Amino acid sequence: MSTVEFRKIGKSFGSVEVLRDIDLTIGDGDFTVLLGPSGCGKTTLLRMTAGLETVSAGEIHIGERVVNDIHPRDRDIAMVFQNYALYPTMRVSENIGFSLEVAGHSKQEIRQKVEEAAAMLSLTDYLDRYPKELSGGQRQRVAMGRAMVRDAQVFLFDEPLSNLDAKLRAHMRVEIRQLHDRLSATTLYVTHDQIEAMTMADKIVLMQGGNIVQSGTPDELYDSPSTKYAAEFIGSPAMNFLNGVLEVQGGEAFFSSSDLKLKLPENYAALENGRELVCGIRPTDVSLSQTGDISGKLIIAEKTGAEIQLHMSIQGTDFSAVVSRDAKFSAGDQVTLAVEPNRLHIFDAATELRL
Ligand code: ATP
Known about the structure:
elongated
């Protein structure tokens, strides 16, 4: 297997610059997820790694080699696409073994590799079927089998689960991650789905408008988002944001927004009094408490089964909270919540950077 390294990568389509100064290293055997909204450039970066797009600036290294000018076929990568791209007139076994046949492997070797991959992917009983006789999840597994038999150094996945229904997506997330743990292949996986990123990645690379905003483990991005954008993108239900100012009184720091006042960890007392802030609070970080500092009117209580999501209005701003399913509320009730100071995410209002 192999590392993948992007050094100062840039990409323009004509006069439109879609990626700039991308510096990123994917360690040997790591599962790295490129995450971001539509149009942020993640697919372009993946396609450049595969050799399906040219590189406008910088170098892409796979293992010891700079691959900028190396033909896709010779890059030693395997790619799994969103639309599976299976050959409809070939059986599953032929689809999986096709690249080996083209490469001139013996029939016996091809059969052995196809059977091994099929066993790992629970496809043994389907080898004689045609793609149209398979479910979406089974087709996706055939596409993965086709990548697996190639013993590639690097696996590239381009939104491989987006055509599947929610239940199958959850199932395939686990399967892909288990497969990765078994094969330990260096993997670059593109998605706009933060749940996929959080559940599968060793490392998440969050992108915005052609730049990397933050990269780190799922926990790092969840616990310490470096910008308001990262805070908003990661976590479901999404983080709440309140606008206010820093109030420093007698060595103590508070986030203040008209009649709302939240105690902050002490280190914020070193910042300039009156600084404009955005305070981020995850809906799962609050608790119901009569003595809490956050109070608002309930708009609607949504039962999700395991818990209740309260949609409230706090100083005219929408605010949601996840509470126990035992809580009893009706629309219009005044709800009071508490939050620990160290669970607050404080951003500069102007730069939106974490403070
Ligand atoms: P999605 O999830 O929608 O695929 P993405 O983050 O993968 O989004 P890219 O497909 O990498 O985004 O596209 C990045 C930007 O580059 C977009 O603004 C897109 O319109 C532009 N782009 C992509 N391919 C081309 C092309 N061949 N010619 C011109 N512009 C392109």
